[in-house]
Amino acid sequence: MPITAFSSSRGMELDVEQLLARLAEEGAQIGLAQASPIPEEWKSHIPTDLECPSCFRRGAEVVRAGRSKADGQVVRQAYFRFGKSGATTGHHPFCDFTGNVPVGHIPENLVLFSTAKDGVSRAVRDLVCKGIALHIFEQRDIRAMREWFFRQKQQSQFVVTLEPGLPAWLESLRRYCHWTPRRSARHFALTDDVFKIPAFDFKAAARTELTLRYQAVLKEMFDKKSSCTV
């Protein structure tokens, strides 16, 4: 669940508290108390204005912070929910927040600059803040860059249709047959006379038969393995 969302009308990314404070300021209202319900006017505005920071779908709902009844301390961080309801479709299937993602989840391809502790992240955070302050770029530009990245990810996706048991079968075939291009298996007829040979190795015969039957598959696997190790 994302803890921030992009406001298309304001051109900036906001968390829940920042959004509610800005809505109160724009409406010349006193800030919303913790226990006060969100006005219906705000509820109507939020899903049409806010975008998911990863897939840019709209239809956001505000889930306010959960607080302990005993001492009022925050026990659940506020976040934005993009559920499927009415005309909204929820997150895009390729979105980083699709599925049962916990609140505050940071996708692998993103960095939370507010808490990042390594030197590179701090340096990037300072450069971004200075760039915005100097009007070199704005949050809309950052949003456009992220959308470009998301579109690139969409275009590079492909669907693999594969029988679930095939990988295990291929691995068993590879281990059992021991096929190499330098030692091609030769076919021979399994006659009654062959079976009468003392200490006849039935396992070796079965291996040979499998190798002959799936020689093209084994060659393909061998070629792929060789090309990966070059």
Kindly summarize this structure in a few lines.
This protein has 230 residues and is mainly alpha-helical. The chain contains 8 helices and 7 strands; from the N terminus they run ββααβββββαααααα. 42% of the residues lie in helices and 9% in strands.
What would your notes on this structure say?
The protein has 230 residues and is mostly helical. The chain has 2 domains: 152 residues, no CATH class; 64 residues, no CATH class. The chain has 8 helices and 7 strands, in the order ββααβββββαααααα. A 3-stranded antiparallel β-sheet has the order 2-1-3.
Query: Spans with pLDDT under 50 lasting ≥5 residues?
Result: none
Count the beta strands: 7
Residue share in helices?
A: 40-55%
SSE topology string: EEHHEEEEEHHHHHH
Major beta sheet, specifics? Answer: 3 strands, antiparallel
Mean pLDDT score: 81
Strand order, sheet with most strands: 2-1-3
* Helical segment count: 8
The shape is elongated
End-to-end separation in angstroms reads 43 Å
Judged by helices, strands and strand pairing, the structural class is mainly alpha
The radius of gyration is 30 Å
Number of domains: 2
Percent in strands: 5-15%
